[in-house]
């Protein structure tokens, strides 16, 4: 394969550097499938990797980018052959294994899933890890026994990637969705996705009481920290909140009150090493249940060479919805 274009993170005395340059295919890591990457996307974790604001990258040099779609070029894996369309999310790609912001990737076939029927490669990356995580969160709430009949559902970080897809998925399933955002200008966008109410994130961002007024039966939280603590404190009896992000922080300054006085459940969402059966179920449901026109409305596109400037943008909360990276 010779060389191909890639974004490469290098370790420096000051932290790390980022460059868009030629990368030698001989330096790709071990794997039994080589993929020609056609599309990737931008997630909060990608912003951390691109900027070095958090120690996401744990091997240098590293090609960042935690998910991709593409076409198999070579394979020693029994399930895949050249020409197959595939999708990858998670498994440490872009963190400990060379990632997606490149024209080629070599990975373990067990990490891949076939491109879901009904989705294009671009649509799969418009969903990406963020949308896939939103579906895992909705599945967790359903497994807990929650339905729209139990009351409203809140989505925090609603104008971001996870939040946008979560709003759309919950609304389409019949939930009364309360979308929490710090950007008042995004109210129209969120209502177009299906939000019934808009809540200023300032109401959740500051320390609150151990228990507050019961306002929602379910939640999908991509923010963490004090926001998640307040969401829990205002969740109705026997409700549940799916926690899948840390935009505000990794801490959780809460008490046992919501859990032992109201029976609230906190459901952790791991999108990185999800077992294959559950992973494929989530992707199949996304292909069948996410309105693709709504997905298109929340999606913007950039070229691979533009990715370097987007790390700071997503960390500052200036990226709305989903971003597809066109590689091919």
Question: Could you characterize the architecture of this molecule?
Answer:
- α7 links the parallel β12 and β13.
- This protein is about 30% helix and about 25% strand.
- The chain contains 10 helices and 15 strands.
- The model has no long low-confidence stretch (mean pLDDT about 95).
- By secondary structure, it is an alpha/beta fold.
- It is globular, with a radius of gyration of 20 Å.
- Strands 3, 4, 5, 6, 7, 14 and 15 form a 7-stranded mixed sheet that branches.
- The two termini are about 15 Å apart.
- It has 2 domains: about 140 residues, Medium-chain alcohol dehydrogenases, catalytic domain (Quinone Oxidoreductase, Chain A, domain 1, Alpha-Beta Complex), CATH 3.90.180.10; about 140 residues, Rossmann fold.
For this entry, give a set of tags.
328 residues, alpha/beta, Quinone Oxidoreductase, Chain A, domain 1, 6-stranded parallel beta sheet, 10 helices
Number of strands: 15
CATH superfamily of the largest domain: Medium-chain alcohol dehydrogenases, catalytic domain
Which spans of ≥5 residues are poorly predicted at pLDDT below 50?
A: none
Q: Beta-sheet strand percentage?
A: 25-35%
The CATH architecture of the largest domain can be named as: Alpha-Beta Complex
Q: Can you give the helix content as a percent range?
A: 25-40%
CATH topology (level 3) name of the largest domain: Quinone Oxidoreductase, Chain A, domain 1
Cα(first) to Cα(last) distance is 15 Å
Give the assembly state of these chains. single chain
Can you count the helices?
10
Q: In total, how many domains does the architecture comprise?
A: 2
């Amino acid at each position: 394969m010779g060389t191909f274009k890639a974004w490469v993170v290098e370790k420096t005395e000051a932290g790390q550097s980022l460059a868009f340059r030629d990368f030698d295919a001989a330096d790709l890591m071990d794997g039994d499938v080589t993929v020609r990457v056609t599309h990737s996307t931008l997630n909060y974790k990608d912003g951390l990797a691109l900027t070095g604001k958090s120690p996401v990258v744990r091997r240098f040099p590293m090609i960042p980018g935690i998910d991709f779609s593409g076409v198999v070029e070579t394979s020693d894996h029994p399930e895949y052959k050249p020409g197959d369309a595939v999708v990858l999310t998670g498994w440490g790609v872009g963190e400990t294994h060379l990632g997606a912001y490149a024209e080629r990737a070599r990975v373990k076939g067990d990490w891949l899933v076939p491109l879901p029927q009904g989705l294009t490669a671009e649509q799969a990356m418009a969903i990406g890890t963020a949308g896939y995580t939103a579906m895992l969160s909705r599945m967790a709430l359903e497994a807990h026994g929650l339905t729209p009949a139990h009351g409203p559902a809140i989505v925090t970080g609603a104008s971001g990637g996870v939040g946008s897809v979560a709003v759309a998925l919950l609304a389409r399933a019949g939930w009364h969705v309360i979308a929490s955002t710090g950007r008042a200008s995004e109210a129209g966008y969120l209502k177009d996705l299906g939000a019934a109410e808009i809540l200023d994130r300032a109401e959740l961002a500051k320390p609150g009481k151990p228990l507050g007024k019961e306002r929602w039966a379910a939640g999908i939280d991509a923010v963490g920290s004090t926001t998640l603590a307040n969401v829990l404190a205002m969740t109705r009896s026997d409700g549940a909140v799916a926690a899948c992000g840390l935009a505000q922080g990794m801490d959780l300054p809460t008490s046992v009150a919501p859990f032992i006085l109201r029976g609230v459940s906190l459901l952790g969402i791991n999108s990185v090493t999800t077992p294959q059966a559950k992973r494929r179920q989530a992707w199949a449901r996304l292909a069948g249940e996410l309105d693709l026109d709504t997905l298109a409305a929340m999606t913007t596109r950039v070229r691979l060479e533009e990715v370097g400037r987007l790390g700071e943008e997503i960390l500052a909360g200036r990226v709305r919805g989903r971003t597809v990276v066109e590689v091919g």
